[in-house]
Amino acid sequence: MKISRIKTTNFRQHRNVDIDLSSDQADFVILKGKNGAGKTNLLKAVTWAIYGELDSGDTGQQLLTDSVVLSMKTGDYEDTEVLVEIDLGSGESAYIKRKQAFKKSEKGLAPYGETELEVQVFRDVKTGFQVEPDPEGWIERYLPHRFKPYFLFDGEKLERFFQDSDAPKIKSAIQEVARIDVLFRIQEKLSAAANTLNVRAAKLTGTNGEKFANELDDVVDRIEKKSKEIDQLDKEFRDAEEAESALDKQLSGQKNLEANIERKRKIDGELDKENRHLKDAKDRFYLKIRSSAATVLLAGALRVLGEKVEEARKNKVLPPPVDLEYLKQLLTTGTCICGSDLKSSAEHSMHLEKVISDYHEVGEIGNALNEHALTYATELSKLPGHVEVIAHMNSSIDDKEDEIASLQAEQQALAAELEGQDNETVRNLAKARSQQREIAISKQRALNVARGELKQLESRKSDVEREIQKAASANAESAKARQKADFASKAAAIAKGLYESMNNQVREAISRSLETRFKSMTWKEGYFEQVSIDPSFRVSIVTNQGVEAYGRLAAGESVCLAFAFSLTLSKEAGLNFPMVVDTPMGRLGPDVQVNLARVIADATRGDGKNPNHQMILLMTETEYNKQVAEELSSRRPKVLQINFDTKTSETTVN
Amino acid sequence: METNNVAIAKAINELGCEEEIKKCLSRLFIEELAPSTSGDVPQNFYVRQVEAHAENWAPSKEPEA
Question: Which of A197, A408, A597, A650 has the smallest count of CB within 10 Å of its CB?
């Protein structure tokens, strides 16, 4: 199946576009254009023609081309029309045409009448095109609406597919596409048939017949209600778990905030401590300054005094600091301080006598001066020590002040970052998460209770059926009805077993294929170790470190996963719908674009048994770059350019 | 889609159960896929099919797989 023609009339900027995709080359089509050229609206035109809908967020209020609206006068009518022609293979084809009239009134432009849908099918030359009496039904048979998300989609929204998708959605996607839902329906309807036949058998048993029948009806009714209640509870439980997980994600996003708040709190404490230490250091410094003040202040005077004493000695107005009594003793013993014999050296003796005489002459003043000079020298010698201690204390104060300045700068930066945010946000999130957890737990409990009740009801149903069987044995007609009910029950059980077995087979096949495709698309070679869909239809992506990465994928990786899933469903389930994808690579980096291009080219290529799978890619010029074009060249694509004329606000495709 | 329909039909055919049950399941499956029903086969069709096939059904005489 492939789209062989798209023709639009007055559909937004596509006022008059007719794209012929009937050639063999049109198995792979690139419609490239700049942003705003009209690619997305072309996808919408196809979607609208087939399903009469656009997408969420697009109300479709303004379908009519702007220039047409402007040229309309009050009372004028204009139509928007899109025709999609489909090649059904084996010489058969069909076209789907949807039309909506609009009327311009005093109040403005409004749809006029209902949307008209027409489907005409060409089966052979003899009968030609024939109008389908039930066009909606025809579309549902050939292009079921439930498959729409997997063959008509916007690549930029793909990222959300797996972000929003939960296990039930993935399960229904796989089952619907693989048609296993039919088996599930068969087993459900067979079970219902068994109940109907059992009730009939009960009614035929005689006196207690009505009672048995009513009891069976009642228990079947209660089982049905309980099953619905379980489905609802199961959904609520999953929703609660999902909501909790979403809050978890938000909280982990707030971790930086939490860390910053913690860091700021720590810095506030450190600043307090450092400020206290600085004050202590300054106190000690001033104390030291005070205690050394006398020495420091007298230092200059003492130095001058010392110089004067030295000068006086030089001029021999002051005797050297020697003990007078010792000198006298030297004279008595007759030996000089230098060791020479004073008795034999008149000169030395005379010199010594002169010193003693000078000493006497200088008298008490000189003596006192000598004594003071010694004290001052001692005091002066302490000065460098004081200076060193003070300098050290001063430098330590400088260090503390630097440290405080740096802490203050960090404190200010953090305060600026935290402005408008506070740990209130984190607290509220944590509170909401905890409430969500409680809801999930309560739902799970209710679910367990309901499942227990269902088991009891099923057991009660078996008891009633046994009683009916017992009573039915006495009545031939009733026994016959019972046998039919048994047949239905057995057939239902077999259908259920087959459903479960095929369900697993399909899930495993899709899981394997999803893994291969996803791994081949991402640039992180060898990083993603395992991609799987577990029996509960939960997707799991495990890295080579054994870490679960699903839910933490980068935006580009999420797109790859969704694309891999869509391609897998199409291929594995044997779908041959044409795929129309808008901006398939918009969110991807160059490496991933090339990988994805290769995978798309391979995945849509036919083999001996199956024809090529038509792919129509609506790409920006950045997306359809040289490398991507090279990868896609193996499919010999038909490349068309969408141009937007700014003067007319209309597009052309050529 | 056809591939899976064929796969399911084949799986029904290969079931190791009584022939009559296989026949009944095949008939119901075909009816579910018929374009005229669009997957909305009425419940009374099921009851009628079960009744028809159960007539020829002898559970104890046919071996089960």
Answer: A408
